[in-house]
Amino acid sequence: MLATLVDEPFSKPDWVFEEKYDGVRILAYKEGDEVSLISRNAIDRTDRYPAIAAEIAKLKPRTLVLDGEVVVFDAKKVSRFQLLQQSRGRPQYVVFDCLYEGGHDLRNEPLSVRRQALERLVQPSPPLLLAERLASDGIKAFNVASRRKLEGVIAKRASSRYFEGRSTEWLKFKVHQEDEFVIGGFTEPAGARHYFGALLLGIYSGDQLRYVGKVGSGFDEKTLQSLHDKFERIVLPRSPFAAPVNERGATFVDPKLVAQISFTEWTKDGKLRHPVYLGLRDDKNPKEVVGKA
């Protein structure tokens, strides 16, 4: 179940307001002593997070399905995708939903009932944590998120059922700008920079990839080399972008890779201002990266 982005925070009866975490969405499946951690695009991540899998295996129900986010927290207890992507810190599984427990399918139960099941089953202790409810009032929750410099707030209707797909029963509003963008090419390096200068970024509008600017900061030498190695296998003879991209020394690539980018704002002509590269998203399909400006 996916949340729909809204522009402004709000407060309504029958809604709860949780911290929005900056990590990788994972469904956890437990059958007896066996645990599988599966990403949104059906990649098995169990071997990547063995401590989390081991902790879930200790939970009492023989069969269990949990929904949550694998994150790494910084020193101020704020989740940072960049730390997770660079394996800097201890991954933790922040659980926010319980879909199945001991032979009972809970997806048709209201969120309030599923949350009660979750609180009964999971005693918060790293690496297993419960999603934090920031405040009962959405405006206050947004103020808390802003003060703590969190990524944002997830608003959920307490009576909502769980179903696959994007929903207006779950909404999200962000404190700062951070999102996914498709990599459609790169520029030549300059000065002391090796491998490439900047990434050329786009978002989809229908089947067309729209250019939204380039990002040249947020890279270390290891990241530059790793990305360049990936690009060498997917170079294209022509641009994948719908309109001409007027960047000197541009090399274009098959738009298969998705990058997480932070930025300050959108410009009037639909470009990113002050973008910073945070990492690759191997749990996102490029075609899901659609127009946001």
Describe this structure in words.
With 293 residues, this protein is α+β, with helices and mostly antiparallel strands. Helices cover 16% and strands 39% of the residues. The strands form four sheets. Strands 3, 4, 5, 6, 7 and 8 form a six-stranded mixed beta sheet that branches. The longest helix has 11 residues, at 111-121. It is globular and about 60 Å long. The model has no long low-confidence stretch (mean pLDDT 94).
What keywords describe this structure?
6-stranded antiparallel sheet, single chain, alpha+beta
| Unreliable segments of 5+ consecutive residues | none
* Biggest sheet descriptor: 6 strands, mixed
Helical percent range?
10-25%
Helical region count? 5
Count all strands and give the number: 19
Architecture blueprint of SSEs:
Layout: E1 2-5, E2 15-20, E3 24-31, E4 34-39, H1 50-57, E5 63-71, H2 81-85, E6 92-101, E7 104-105, H3 111-121, E8 128-130, E9 133-135, H4 138-148, E10 152-157, E11 166-174, E12 178-187, E13 199-205, E14 208-215, H5 221-231, E15 235-236, E16 250-262, E17 265-266, E18 272-273, E19 276-280
Parallel strand pairs: 1-11, 6-8
Antiparallel strand pairs: 2-9, 2-10, 3-4, 3-5, 5-6, 6-7, 10-11, 12-13, 12-16, 13-14, 15-16, 16-19, 17-18
